[in-house]
Structures are given as C-alpha cells and as structure tokens.
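Exercise 4. Each item below gives a protein and its sequence. For each, produce the structure-token representation.

Item: ABC transporter ATP-binding protein (Limobrevibacterium gyesilva).
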Amino acid sequence: MNESGADVRLHGVARSWGATTALSGISLHVRAGSFCVLLGPSGCGKTTCLRIVAGLEQASAGVVEIGGRDVTALPPAQRGVAMVFQSYALFPHLTVAENIMFGLKARSVPKPDRLRRLDRAVEILGIGHLLARRPGQLSGGQQQRVALGRAIVAEAPVCLMDEPLSNLDAQLRAEMRREILALQRRLGITMLYVTHDQTEAMGMADQVVLLRDGRVEQDAPPADMYSRPATSFAASFIGTPPMNLLKLSHEGMVPGTGGPVLGPPRAAATLAGIRPEALRLSDHGIPAEVTHAEYLGADTVMVCSVGAEGRLLARLPGRVAIADGALVHFDFGPADLHLFDAATGHRIP
Ligand code: ATP
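Answer:
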C-alpha cells in the first residue's frame, strides 16, 4: 500500500447474468484516503461491485476509474488495488511469511524489496512471532492479520475488503475493526469495505454507500444517514434496534390511538419514523401497551403495541422496571420525527 490513496470513481456500472441483474447503474466517488463502506442486505450486489473495482469481474456497462485513470479494461494486477477476502484465502502449505510475500513473488518483486515490505507489515501488525507458522496453527484473529499483511505488502493505493471480519467472534471483531481503521488511517490509503453489518459501517466509515437491489439507496456520511435517512429502507437499515415506522392515517395519527397528530394531513399514506432511542416515557404522547421489556445492562428495550396494529420499540437508558401489559405514553423531540411517503419510501422533507 502506498502512503497516499487514490480516488475511486464508478460511472453507471452495471452487471447482469442472464435474467439476474446484480447491479444497475452504480455511480459513486470515494475520495483518496477515505474509508467507504458498501452496505446492504444479502444479495444487493456489494460483492459484485467490489469485484468489478478489483477487476475480478467485468462490468456489463459503465466505467471504473482509479486515481483518475480508466481501469475498466485493465487486469487486476495493473489497477493498484489490494484485496482482503472473507475467507482470507491463505495457502495452508505455506508459512505466514511465504503467504504474506506470495503475491510479490508472483509479480517478480526483487527479494530485498520483498523482505523490506515484509518487515514493515510485520512491524505494523505485530506478528513477528508467527512468521514460521502455517495457517492451520493460527487463531482466527491471527489469520486475519496475515491476510491484512498481504494487503499491506502490496503497497497499493486502494484496498478492497469483502466482509473481512465475519469469521471472528464478536469481541475480536470489535478489536479488528479498530485495527483495520487505524491501519487505513496510518497508511493513508483509500478503503472500499463491504459489509452487511451496519455497526461496522457506523463505526468505520467516512462514507456509507447503502445498496438495495443493485442500486444506490443512499450515499452519505454515517452520521447523516443516521440523522437524515433518505428513505424508509435506509431508516430501517441503520440503528439498533432499527427505526420504528408507524403507518399514519390520512389525519396524520396512528390509527386506533386517538392521537396525537404526528404528521400533517395528507392524501397519500405516510410513515412516521422514530428511533427507539429517541423515545422517552412521559405522561403524554403516543399511547402504547408494553408487550415485553428486556434489560440489557446499559439500557432497556421495550417492545410495545400501538393502536390497532402498530408496533413500537423503545430503547431507554438504564433499568426500567415495568410490567408486561402496562399502559404508557412515549414522547420525543420534534427533530426526532422522520416522515416518509409509504408508497415510494422517500423522505418527506
Ligand atoms: P452477500 O452479502 O450475500 O454476499 P452481496 O450483496 O455481496 O450478497 P452479490 O454477491 O454481489 O451480493 O450478488 C448480487 C446478485 O448477483 C445476487 O442475486 C447473486 O445471486 C447474483 N450473482 C452474483 N454472482 C453471480 C454469478 N457468478 N452468476 C449469476 N448470478 C450471480
């Protein structure tokens, strides 16, 4: 990896296999040295998009630019990208040192240069004691570091990662998340990182590109996607638990609650979105019946029914002791209400 990253741009990139359309017209711009997360549910086209940037897959249409250069027709080795796969793709019969340097040898990088790059990666990752081992003698986290080592020695300005943490347990995942982010910052490279885990996206990204059915649903910094989701899909994809979406009557109320008015009267059906952590118990507001409350340590998640068929999740700080079946009211600040067109899913400004 280079000390400086390169811009990555996609212009109208599409890909289909027969009747299956994986990507339809993806355009995006990842700034040099920034961390971009491609986020979305299974099958939305994240991996296909990454493989097209890597050159492992050809686009059916569109252009890929890296560092201002059209690389659409170039083979992977000439694009200036390093890639880390979910499976790590380590060779079981090679040592850690050989695994890390494998790509360099294949590209005929001279031995002194190979060793210099290896030393640097080993120093960055703290894996000097593992060099003579084979992958079968490593823990999951150690294998992950070896895979990162491979990407570091490539000295490419752009690094592509496809769900690199999905084989690790929760604690190690959080640790490696910080390590990968620190590595990207230290090297100043451009990162394109695929995950379906929105907490990874929130915690790591400068820019989140949310994909849905092969299209860009929203492209924004994580804080903006959280505070101003462009669609009800984006609203429900970001946040734990996800944003509540209540269908409103034409009068702007949750049907069957007798008030309050959440949105302006509208001819078209509206969804009112309120994050679980924006709700607070009050003596007025939305009336709800507690179905179930779960104390999680730092907070309590309360599942409630609202009106005829609405469901509301509230995430309240600390321990809230409340009986199932209790009747409560929830209040929230005016900035915490998001309105969406129920038919199109688009945000109502
Ligand atoms: P996941 O998170 O499950 O890996 P994803 O968002 O990475 O999903 P892709 O793997 O990019 O999604 O797949 C997008 C769509 O393209 C899916 O419908 C998939 O079945 C299809 N697809 C991917 N590769 C091929 C292929 N080689 N041949 C046919 N269809 C494919």
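Check: The radius of gyration is 24 Å.
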